[in-house]
Specification:
heterodimer; A: alpha+beta; Ubiquitin-like (UB roll); Fumarate Reductase Iron-sulfur Protein, Chain B, domain 2; 2 domains; five-stranded mixed sheet; two-stranded antiparallel ribbon; 10 helices; elongated; B: mainly alpha; two-stranded antiparallel sheet; 2% strand; globular; binds iron/sulfur cluster; binds FE2/S2 (inorganic) cluster
């Protein structure tokens, strides 16, 4: 059973723009992206929208639906009443390109700033070995589809453009945590997480966790553990004393 | 100049947020409940009175360490005898610091009291933001020291519960409603304390190599399970500690008689 859906879509570019009203025929079981595609096909052929897989796996279709950061392809129309108006805007933390498309290159800059995995030399037979528990630990973090919804909702940069140079953002705290917990990585990422990635700017208010479409517990499992690791290195006099007395950091034995 | 979501490069939308839901309800609830707790505990901590009704001692006043503790309440002597103010003020610093620097409470009060942010995707009112990088918030990093202190306090409260199985003449084999309330409170306090993120880190989270430390790995999985509900333990133990104190207050003022099971 189809019904007419009222939508407000943001249209414009960097010079200005506004929400524009549309009414579009939709079917039961469709998602927001379907409705937008139908608007594009029938009423606004030049509507710019980015998407790719329509399966919640490519992370392209990030937008703000009724003010919340969501994937358009994973937001079901059945979550709303038939009478509700659905408002869709581009991500509001990044520069807009046109209509629903934003320039997310900030995130790729931050990705490049992060030192890559630097493994220990392989065992004698040329292989590297890891036990199952250690493999499992990072599994959750590798579910990330790089939709950058967490980055978009994080108030540190969303509300304060000036923090962008100093702050890597939740998606990359995931990566820091994954590598710092990796038994074969040789970097000490605690120092970096604080100085280069600005983890101290995060005030653990958990919006990143709230929006992650992969349900990664970003704050509890990556950011807070990373903050605790920074404390180990910088603010815990006992740990500091231990490393002075033994004249080495006990990282490798851990 | 306009910044944040109103900055020049962002899509121009006038509203601070386009969320139609009642996003202000959770921070408002937190604000009201925390404020009520602050008012209540300030009154009780400064009053210095009505905190002991044998065999029960209010969790706000345990351990009571000064000369002005009411008779029977100082099980650990009076090492800080000269203290003239309410004995609660000495000991409350530790649980207070523990909760103030708790990762969950931080989230709750940054949102509800400081509106930073009030809710997700709702623009915050502040024009500058430095997070936890500077004085005073950089001191949040000492949370684990408060964890250690809070664990000692929890041990003492546990001891109080054991003593609550004696009657007012110090004979064993007593149990009243007060015993049950103190017991429930101490269980919730332990759940809150053990589910702490710093506890999770110290127990095993700081390891890089789980497979080399099977015992700590096991302990970490247990603490992690508790940790998932840390916010819930934070709330429940907040209520239980206030309730336990209020119950002792009622007994001490004679407003109520402790129902006795045996
Ligand atoms: S928890 Fe930290 S990183 Fe995540 S959204 Fe909040 S401030 Fe940003
Ligand atoms: S952590 Fe979650 S919200 Fe952030 S980019 Fe990855 S999948 Fe998206
Ligand atoms: S289109 Fe790929 S995640 Fe939505
Ligand atoms: S008590 Fe909440 S995180 Fe430590």
């Amino acid at each position: 059973m189809g019904y007419p859906l009222s939508m407000r879509l943001w249209r414009g570019d960097r010079d200005g723009g506004a929400l524009q009203d549309f009414t579009v025929e939709v079917e039961e079981g469709e998602v927001v992206l379907d409705a937008i595609h139908r608007v594009q096909a029938t009423q606004a052929g030049d509507l710019a929208v980015r998407w790719n897989c329509k399966a919640g796996k490519c992370g392209s279709c990030s937008a703000e639906i009724n003010g919340r950061s969501r994937l358009m392809c994973m937001t079901r129309l059945s979550d709303f009443g038939h009478e509700d108006v659905i408002t869709v805007t581009p991500l509001r933390a990044f520069p807009v390109v046109r209509d629903l498309v934003t320039d997310v290159s900030y995130n790729y800059v931050k990705a490049r700033e992060l030192p890559a995995f630097a493994p220990t030399p392989p065992d004698a037979d040329g292989k590297r070995r890891m036990m199952q528990q250690d493999v499992e630990r990072g599994q959750e973090f590798r579910k990330c589809i790089e939709c950058f919804l967490c980055q978009n909702t994080c108030h540190v940069i969303r509300d304060h453009e000036e923090n962008k140079p100093a702050f890597a953002g939740p998606r990359f705290f995931l990566r820091y945590a994954e590598l710092d917990m990796h038994p074969l990585d040789t970097h000490d990422r605690r120092e970096l997480a604080q100085s280069a990635a600005g983890i101290g700017l995060c005030n653990i208010t958990k919006c990143c966790t709230e929006v992650c479409p992969e349900n990664i517990k970003i704050t509890d499992n990556a950011i807070i553990p990373m903050k605790e690791r920074v404390v180990d290195r910088k603010y815990d006099p006992l740990v500091w004393l231990g490393t002075k007395i033994r004249r080495r950091d006990d990282r490798t034995e851990l | 100049m306009a910044t944040g979501v109103f900055g020049p490069e962002r899509a121009s939308v006038e509203a601070r947020t386009l969320r139609p839901d009642r996003w202000w309800l959770p921070p408002l609830t937190t604000f009201v409940v925390f404020a009520a707790f602050i008012v209540y505990s300030t009154w009780r901590a400064f009053s210095g009175d009505d905190y002991y009704a044998a065999p029960y001692i209010s969790p706000f006043y345990s351990p009571c360490l000064t000369d002005n503790c009411v008779e029977g309440s100082n099980d650990f002597g009076s090492p800080i005898g000269w203290w003239g103010l309410s004995p609660a003020l000495i000991i409350l610093i530790f649980p207070l610091g523990f909760r103030l620097s708790c990762y969950y409470y931080r989230k709750a009060y940054y949102r509800a009291f400081w509106l930073s942010p009030p809710a997700c995707s709702v623009a915050e009112p502040h024009s500058k933001y430095t997070g936890e990088t500077r004085f005073p918030l950089i001191f949040q990093n000492i949370h684990r020291w408060f964890l250690y202190a809070a664990a000692v306090v929890a041990l003492i409260l546990t001891y109080d519960v054991v003593l609550a199985f004696r009657d007012e003449n110090e004979d064993w084999g007593h149990m009243g409603l007060g015993t049950v309330i103190l017991l429930a409170n101490v269980v919730l306090i332990w759940l809150y304390t053990l589910s702490c993120h710093s506890c999770r880190h110290v127990i095993g989270g700081r390891l890089r190599n789980f497979s080399r430390h099977p015992v700590r790995y096991k302990a970490w999985t247990l603490v992690s399970r508790l940790n998932r509900n840390h916010p819930q333990w934070a709330w429940l133990s907040l209520f239980s500690v206030a309730l336990a104190d209020f119950y002792v207050y009622l007994l001490a003022t004679g407003a109520f008689d402790d129902p006795r099971f045996f």
